[in-house]
Batch of 4 targets.
Target 1
Amino acid sequence: MKKYQFTSKIVNESSSLGWNNRIFVPIEIAEKLIASASKKNAKRVICNIEKIVEYHCALTPDGNGNYYLMINKEHRKVIEKLQKTELEIELINDTSKYGIALPAEMETLLEQDDIGRQFFEKLTPGKQRSILHIIGKPKSEAIRIKKAITALDYLVSVQGKLDFKELNDAFKKANEL
């Protein structure tokens, strides 16, 4: 798999979406990544910053023909400790099934629960990634297992009609048990 390397910095630009911190990607690299990707994951990449922060993300168009990567507060905190303005960035196409790492706990449940897997697979890729992100975020394996079970149970109970507010309520109820 081809790796694309460049230097860039984190830029703070106001956005109505709330994601203000971005890393701009040279257009020639963005175009090569998109051209070499599968149609399903054309803009999904794995970003490695300074070989210390690695995450799945999307090449996001800015509306002017350029692309950028969003970077969250958690990753920025790690990078800020380096006290560098120019960062070494490495990008590769994301060839994972869901465009995000599949937590082992969810992978096991998807193998065991045919009905839950069917409802999960019918969700849009963005909804799948959101659920996988929620499940994979906790450090505790026990919490990841509880979230995965809750998410699949919820999807089965609503026949795959996902409402994130309801799912969040389901997570809260599971924590009370």
Target 2
Amino acid sequence: MDIHKAGTSDIDQLIAMREAFLREEHPDLTPDQIIAQRAVLEDYFTRHLNRDFWGYFAIVDAEIAAAVYLVAAERPAHPRLATGKLGTVLNVYTKPVYRRRGYASALLKQMLADAQQLGISLVELQATQAGKAVYDTLGFTVKQSAYTPMEYRLRP
């Protein structure tokens, strides 16, 4: 297995792995929704790749087996975020035929080393039940907060 950090020539693969992840997590997505997202994803990756977004691929026998994405944001510093830099892990996805071989773990370790080099203080993610054990092994902990997570959804 080789770890490959995505470059501009990999945008189609970033989109393909995002679509595979979304299809598995949201099986009710329609073909029209996927097509609409593809244009948005291409624009996003073109503008953000290797600026505040990084993509990692596990390559096995010249094929992408797994992917991990990191998005960085900067906020005002506070005690839990000393540098003000926050990383969010997205799209941890391994193609079914390659699962349970450690590819996602290897990508996450590389991503965490890079996040350290970028000065990111905290890396967060939303774990599925299938992925939680991997994150536990790597040292992620369940987030404890005195605050209640809330959201306000705006419609385009």
Target 3
Amino acid sequence: MKVQHYECTAAEPAEDIPGLSVRWVISEEDGAPNFAMRVFDVASGAASPFHQHPWEHEVFILQGKGAVKGATGETPFEAGYVVYVKPDEQHQFVNKGDDILRFICLIPHLKK
């Protein structure tokens, strides 16, 4: 069992994108057999890359306001919202507020 404050995991720049950091708070290194839990911080005006991949995202917005951009446009969200991104769906998380946008993102481990 692992119990710790999420800030005990070091924040790392996410894909060398200014204003975007990620903490891998639960991962295979912890013995989690199926999923990884990450906590993202997105600075005001920053965004994740617009991309897609063959795995799903399950997201819970902890703090801030933003939008998730897809192939057909943007959908706004704020703290308390959930977002499900299907496998191979194009997506981008954009901070639309003045403060940090913080969210939890669960993804399956990539099979090697």
Target 4
Amino acid sequence: MNKTVYFLIDCSGSMHGSRGDAVNAAMEKVVKDVVPQIKDQKSADLDISFKVIGFRGEREIRTLADADLEDFQAWKPLTGESFQGQTPTGAAIQEVINDIQGGAHGDVDKNVLPPAIILISDGLPNGRNPSYEEVMECADRNSPKSVDNFRWAIRVAIGMNVDEAGRASLEKFGSLSRSMREAGIQSYYDCSDNYADELTEILKSLTLHASIGT
């Protein structure tokens, strides 16, 4: 069985500084501390891969990392120049949907488990083509845009000191299996001004459960 864990990282201008530093610190700890745990705990018939996608500007999407579990051994820190422009969250999610989609409506491959998608952002999604609201229709079973692989995906959002509007928007992203809820995992996390330590602990726990949980 195959499973992909996606990290969607907001690289807008407001993430520059302590927020970006926190992302770097957290991702380094995930690679150093969590990936070895996943290797030890996963079942022999489960193949796991990781894809890290950064998004910024009007619609700029960048693949920051794309590796199988065995090859995910280092995190290349994002530099200050990495953080610019707006927050095109919809375009980033669409990139993931395109990646996981098979057939017209994301027909399910029996050898592929629903992916896990972890979204990290500090602000209200903006941008067009598509907008955040448009891509989230793909998670609605009653919408003609519904994509099964996205609708069934484990989806968690982490808001980094967001305001009320940003929090309300990001909360709409989340979706968990019952087993993950029973394990104490949340579909949305608030990360306060204590960025580095708090984000690291949240992301380490999420990555472990999202990789080997169901």
